[in-house]
Amino acid sequence: MFIVIALWLTAAVAGAVVLTRSKSTPASLVPPAPREVLPTGSTVRLAEDRPTVIVTVHPQCPCTRATFTELQKFLTRQQGKVAALLLFVQPEGEDASFIHGALWDRAGQWPDVQRTIDVDGTVSKRLGAHTSGTALLYAPDGRLLFRGGLTVARGHEGDSPGAERMTVLLAGQRALSTAPVFGCGLENEEGS
Question: Of the candidates 112, 140, 137, 143, which has an alpha carbon nearest to the alpha carbon of residue 39?
C-alpha cells in the first residue's frame, strides 16, 4: 500500500510541475528586424496621430481570453492615446468560422480597435510574431517601441510587465522594450 501511495504522490507532484512549467514558460521571441521599423510593403496601417499597438491573435488559443482582458484594461487606461489593431490569424485551409467567434465579436465592441484577418499568419510572420498574444507598439512613423506580451503567464490575467512598459513608453519615459509572451503558436491550428 505504501508503494501505491508513494507512486501516486510522485505522479501528482510531477504533473503539477509540468503544468506550472507550461503556464509560466514564455514563448521565445524571434529578434525584430535590425532597423526595428514596420516592414516596408506591409499592409498594416498605423494611426497617424498616435502610437498603434498590434496584437497577434490565435482565435482558438485558450490563453487569448486573458490577453484580451489585459488589452482591454490597457486601452481603457490609455483613454484614446493609442490605437489598436488585432491580427486574427486564419491558418491556410480554414474557413471564416475559425476566426468569427466570441473573441472576434468581443473585439468588435471596443473603441479605437481595428480587426483584420491575417491569412496563414503572413503579416504576423513579417512582423516577427509567432505566438498569439504578441503585442507590438509602433510610433506613428513606424518605429517599433515595444515588443512582448500582455499577460503574466499563459491564460492568466493580472498586471504584467508588458502593459507597464508600454504605459511608461507612452508617457515619454524610457523603459525596457520587451516582455515575455505567453500564448499558443500561431501555426498551431488546435490552439494549444
Answer: 143
